[in-house]
Structures are given as C-alpha cells and as structure tokens.
Write a structure and sequence with these properties.
The chain has helices at 2-10, 27-42, 75-84, 101-108, 138-148, 157-170, 181-192, 197-205, 210-222, 239-244, 255-260, 290-298, 316-329, 331-335, and strands at residues 16-21, 46-51, 69-70, 87-91, 112-117, 128-131, 224-227, 232-237, 267-274, 277-284, 301-302, 306-311. The chain is of the alpha/beta class. It folds into 2 domains: 2-205, inorganic pyrophosphatase (n-terminal core); 210-336, Diaminopimelate Epimerase, Chain A, domain 1 (Roll), CATH 3.10.310.30. It has a 6-stranded parallel beta sheet, sandwiched between helices. Helix 2 (27-42) links the parallel strand 1 (16-21) and strand 2. Helix 2 (27-42) runs parallel beside helix 5 (138-148) and helix 6 crosses helix 8 (197-205). The chain is globular. The two termini are 37 Å apart. Bound molecules: guanosine-5'-monophosphate (5GP) and manganese (II) ion.
C-alpha cells in the first residue's frame, strides 16, 4: 500500500519525533502515543510525547507516562521540543483546536505533520494520515500500522498494555458497535504477546476514590434530568458540585453513559463547569449523530455516537437552557426508533 510505503520512508532513518495528544487525554490518546513511542524508540528514533494538559490518575500506570511533557506545566520546554521536531504526529485528534495552545506551535513548525486518528472531518494540515472512522480506536490504527510495517515483534507487553487500554475504553469495554471482528482479532494478538486484559481493566475501571463514587451517587440522584418525550437524559455539574466532592481529573469520565443506559434514551449529555468553561459530552445510540449535533450547535465534534464540545462564552445554566431549547427541534430524529 502506498500509505505503508510512505511510513516506511518516513522511518527509514532515525528521526526526532514528537507525538502530540488532545486536551484532556483519554486512554486512547495516551495509550496510542505511549505504545507507539515505545516501538519507535526501539527503531532508534528520538521520541517525545506532548500533551496540552494533565491526564487522570487512572492512566498513570502506562509505561513512559511520567516522561510526558505537559504544555500547561512546561510551555517553554514543549515549544522547544516541537520546534526541534522533524516529524509531528497528531494522535487521536485531527483538528488543531483540539490541542489548544499546542496547535499554534504545530502550525508554526516546518516539521512534517502526520495524523493517526479515527475522528470525523480531519483538517488538511497533515501531509500523511493513517485515518479511518471505521477504526474503533486510534490504538487499533497504531496496531494496524505496526503490522503493516512488520514491526509487531517490537511491540512488547508494556506497549501492548497501552494499546489494549485505548481499545478497551474507546469501545466502552467491547460493548459499542465499533467493536468489530477486526478489533477482536487485534485484541487476540495483544493477549498473545502477554497483555493481561483483566489487569488493565482493573487499573482503569476499578481504582475509584470514595469521593468519585459519592460524586456519581450525587450526580445520579440530584443532577440527572430525563425528558422522556424526547428520549433524552442529561446530567449537569457545577464547579461547586465538583468542589464539594473534591473531583479530580477524569472523575466524571463515563458518567454520561449512565444517562444513556436509561431505557428508551437515544441521546445523553453531560454538562460540566470547570476552569471558567462548560465542557460537554454527548452520547447516542443508533443513527442519531451526536457528531453532527455537537458540530452544528456547540462547535464540537467527535464520532457518530460519542462527541464533545466546549463553551467559553455561556455559563452552565445558559448551556443547559440552549440544549433544552435545541432538542425541541430534533424531536423527530430523536423519536425515530432504531
Ligand atoms: P468525551 O465526551 O469523552 O470528552 O469525548 C467524546 C468524543 O468526542 C471523543 O472522541 C473526543 O475526542 C471528542 N471530543 C470531545 N470534546 C470535543 C471537542 O470539544 N471538539 C471535538 N471536535 N471533539 C471533541
Ligand atoms: Mn479515540
């Protein structure tokens, strides 16, 4: 394949490589970058991973996580590393606004830009892409690329754990429709190199703090609203709510899925106030595209059934009011049973 040849050429001599990941990195972003970095280093490349901000504690077991350069902690160092790069990868994102200020540095750089991603509507800044919306996770694409390059022998257990984590979480624990036959084949090969799926699952899903579980209880009992006429459920959390439960990064991850799990709900949302902005998560089942919904109404995006957005101009109440008003206009689509 032409694309594989281009990657081969790219890696044919030792390169100075920076792998960048999106804001509020999840297991797929961090896992794809750290897993890929471990392999690239074995091939003799110099690799740094740059994240716009920090990641949740439940990802802090991934090999190499302590070496990730965090832009909002060390901006000057990150700028220098990006400036010196020959290759800059976008891992698990394909729009520069998804990396905040890191995007400006990438845009300024003369390095070759490469996207490895599975989100819709990639921007045109990269000269090479390993991109498919059919992939359930960016980690799956990294695995495919390693296989195409015949580098799978370089994928050790530590890197495999990172790749497994991204696949497991982006498929919602192998439950979403993106859990393809291919993804199971990839996972089977990962288990073959010694990845312990149960251990990775425990590290990610079962390391809750008491505060987090109490926040979950509070959100479900006090901050969940269901609009049965429109098949919608949403949860909203103010900065004060989050403070009360001492919320840490990642503590609200997965919360939106509880709203989606209610019988009959077609679209679910989570609205969260933090750092003077409102972060939104949208999820859907069936044909209703939250990618389109988020893109059209909240300047966001993602995938058909999982998307996000952010507002820096409206407060929590205004966002919720806008959402409630908006859903009226989507009543027909939301009532279409799939
Ligand atoms: P989450 O709700 O878990 O933060 O994000 C769901 C999906 O939407 C992820 O694939 C994520 O990368 C994407 N996403 C989250 N926030 C945004 C955003 O503000 N803009 C865009 N384009 N995508 C987002
Ligand atoms: Mn992903």
């Amino acid at each position: 394949m032409q694309e594989t040849k281009e990657f081969e050429l790219l890696f044919s001599s030792p390169k100075n490589i920076v792998l960048t990941i999106h804001l509020n990195p999840d297991a797929d972003a961090l896992g794809s970058a750290l897993g890929f970095a471990l392999v690239l280093r074995k091939k003799g490349h110099t690799v740094s991973v740059v994240s716009p901000n920090t990641f949740p504690d439940f990802l802090k077991w991934m090999k190499g996580n302590e070496d990730v350069l965090v832009f909002d902690k060390e901006p000057e160092l990150c700028k220098k590393v990006i400036q010196d790069a020959e290759l800059i990868f976008s891992m698990d994102y394909s729009a520069l606004k998804r990396v905040g200020p890191v995007g400006d540095e990438i845009a300024k750089s003369t390095a070759k830009k490469i996207i490895i991603d599975h989100h819709r509507d990639p921007e045109g800044y990269a000269s090479l892409m390993k991109w498919s919306t059919n992939a359930g996770a960016t980690c799956e694409l990294v695995f495919d690329l390693l296989e195409e390059l015949q580098w799978l022998h370089l994928l050790d257990k530590d890197a495999g754990d990172c790749i497994y984590a991204g696949i497991m979480t982006d498929t919602g624990g192998f439950r979403h429709p993106n859990t393809s036959q291919h993804i199971h084949e990839v996972v089977a090969k990962l288990l073959g190199i010694g990845v312990d799926g149960a251990r990775v699952s425990k590290l990610i899903y079962d390391t809750n703090t008491v505060d987090r579980i109490k926040l979950l209880g509070f959100a479900l009992s006090q901050r969940l609203k269901v609009i049965t006429t429109h098949n919608i459920a949403y949860i909203y959390l103010s900065a004060e709510d989050l403070k009360k439960y001492n919320a840490q990064k990642g503590d609200t991850e997965g919360l939106v899925n509880y709203a989606l799990s209610i019988k009959g709900v077609v679209m679910a949302a989570l609205f969260k106030e933090s750092d003077n902005m409102v972060k939104m998560s949208f999820r859907s089942v069936g044909e209703f595209s939250v990618n389109d919904f988020a893109k059209t109404n909240f300047d966001g995006g993602g995938h058909t059934n999982a998307a996000g957005g952010v507002s820096k101009t409206m407060n929590l109440q205004q966002v919720v009011e806008k959402f409630e008003k908006l859903v009226q206009t989507y009543k027909l689509e939301l009532n279409k049973k799939s």
